[in-house]
Amino acid sequence: MKKIAIIGMICMFFVAGTTSLYAQQGRKGRNIQKSTLTDEQKEQMKEVRIKHASETKDLRNELNELQARQKTLVSANHPNKKEVYANIDKMSSIKKELNLQRVDMRLEMRSILDEEQLLRVGNGSGFKHEMKKGKHGQKGMRQGIGNGKRHAANCNKQFCDGTGVGAKGKGANMHNRNLLDLSDDQKEQMKDLRIAHMKDTKSLRDEAELIRLKQKQMMTSENPSMSDLKTNVNRLSEIQNQLAKKRFDNQLEIRKILDEDQLVLFLNRSGKGFKHGRRAL
Known about the structure:
mainly alpha
């Protein structure tokens, strides 16, 4: 038994050492890939990112203002649906323009690379890290997809059982549990709303996910089509716009379930707890 235990320990240390070696080799390989960019190329990419940041600054500032206004509109005692929808349209338009300009930036970065480097981009090399810089807070083509899924699952739960956005750890979960003091009947209605919302938005979210994957493949292809890339951006913007409006409609339905005191707490938290409503546009 003692010999078996010793042999087992030796095997364990050997496996651990081998795993560590492979991890080190992987990191070394990624560093080599990044280092193959010449100093001139790095400087050119830096200039492209700076130009992109400068050209999109006004749009990003305007978007921030619209997002702040959206919080005010949706947290009103009696939100004006027409105004909320109009504000969503404005945000969608700006985000679409930012995404289109980001596509231009990434294509310009591609033009800096030589043929071998472009092949490495397609194979998932460290050059992607350089090309992804310059987002400046934008979520790009991923906006409204993963966040939309998480929103559909959590938009009602965070007030029912403390498992929504902002709940961290056991202590926070206990503190937030049933924050609105919902009755069993209200919890059941919340659950029904959540399920109905997920079903209603599933086809849109699935389509958005498919578009995102296509966009990723095209951006790493040998000759990406600017026309196809823009078509994807335009369609994804339309989907995100619809999802944002459906989320707002869902919040209006939630309000109908709450009594006066619960509604006050809900509106007080809506600007904090529903961040994903903003992010997912």
